[in-house]
């Protein structure tokens, strides 16, 4: 392994790799160390079921990667990265034959939302048309902009409050489903922030998949890093920062709990204590399928939806997510499903399909949700199970074994509630710096938070350059 470097980055997810590229662009020699045998963290794509079927193990849908200033500045299309847009970003079946659609076009979306159409157009249409400003605002909430203030004023409220003002069930279901990406009780404040941002991005940039799988994003970042003289070493789990090659800076793309294990002895006691209070939220149970034909949706238009939210009415989604937040396993879970092969047929042999879905479960839950998830799909696609030719499941323990950052199956780098969105992982104007002047944090557990957006990595690397460059 290289022994003479300027920076060591621990972890090769989007934040670790964006941080590494940012430093390498500034002329630093950077080494990325990755515990797993395949680089990419939450962007890995693997043949989980059958040969020739490539499944996104974690992230699958990429409005944030497309909108994020970090990714846009890196222009990864130069490394061959390309996205495919599904015909419809999101479908949300409410009852068989009755589906709410979030379409690219805000006017078409509003037309399906009855009395709420004008409100949807005013809020989502306005934010959607200002997506670059919105992405910049969310990308660094420590620098408030008019767009961030407008977003906060519109949607810092609990999702359930906003739902009370809606008159059409289609709008309530759509909003509850996109807000549930917060992996939180939707009665909590700030859950609507994520819903409004994701809804606006659907109109602004779409909800695309990466052609070839999310791994293509990681591969593009690694190619750029190598072209700048950096390197990624896989199969190397870091256990103590003192054993790393000597470097001017160490960037931990881990959650606070692991940062304490690797570097706790280097932190000031007060800082270490604050990190130890960081909270981890619910987990996920995930299923990937190989199918010999498309999902037989009762509503045939759902075949064109890249993402399908399955949970019925808005109130049913709210109930399922509240049960999870309170530590109970819902009988009828809210299922987030991605069907990438309509937009990107390269993922499966000709005529065949891959399908990806997960539901939220209590932190560390050991309950097998395969049957509950498949039953939810069967409600809106009778005969779905007959199309399955391969299946792979991951419970929270398997998620954590795949990626040590997914503690207890928590895929967001730690609970993203209002408190931990504002103080992530600590209340500071430079949350990427630690109490040790040479150790930095660069993961979804730091500002601005989860998703394949690379912003925490970009901001951490910029902090390094400002302080040590
Ligand atoms: C099932 C699932 C679905 C998701 N869906 C989406 C989606 O559709 N769209 C989206 O934008 N986001 C999605 N996400 C979230 C997204 O994947 C994460 O927010 C994002 O990957 C976090 O990036 P990161 O760089 O902070 O860390 P990660 O991507 O988690 O990477 C951390 C890396 O650090 C490595 N590591 C940890 N400890 C060590 C150590 N001690 N030594 C060496 N290496 C170490 C890990 O192995 C891992 O590779 C999903 C996540 C999951 C799990």
Automatic annotation (TrEMBL):
The organism's place on the tree of life at top rank: Bacteria
SUPFAM superfamilies attached to this UniProt entry: FAD/NAD(P)-binding domain
InterPro entries referenced in this protein's UniProt entry, alphabetically: FAD/NAD-bd_sf
Pfam families attached to this UniProt entry: NAD_binding_8 (PF13450)
PANTHER family per record: DEHYDROGENASE-RELATED (PTHR10668:SF105), PHYTOENE DEHYDROGENASE (PTHR10668)
Protein name per the record: Phytoene dehydrogenase-like protein
